[in-house]
Amino acid sequence: MVPTVNRYFYFPSSDLNLSVPTIIPAGQFTDDDGNMPPSFAGTGPDSFNNLYINGIVQPGGSYNVSASGLSFPAQSTTIYAGTPVILETVQLAASIVT
Length: 98
Prior knowledge:
Shape: elongated
Structural class: mainly beta
Radius of gyration: 14 Å
Strand content: 35-45%
Largest sheet: 5 strands, antiparallel
């Protein structure tokens, strides 16, 4: 298996009240090179992702990732302005060696 890892960073400019469903579009994140990607690379059936908020990995059921954005179902929490939100996607591809 050959993994391809992508990391995306977001620092909200204002508090995110997650008591209502919330979506952060992919274009609001920056990648390792400081670019704002139009979509998240490495999402799909042959991949997995990890979300870190303020450096703490989040349970898988507390968020959803698609190529277009990061979404949170309604929950009783707030992500405060300036808190680092880091999304890591890992895509796996089979490699045949002969």
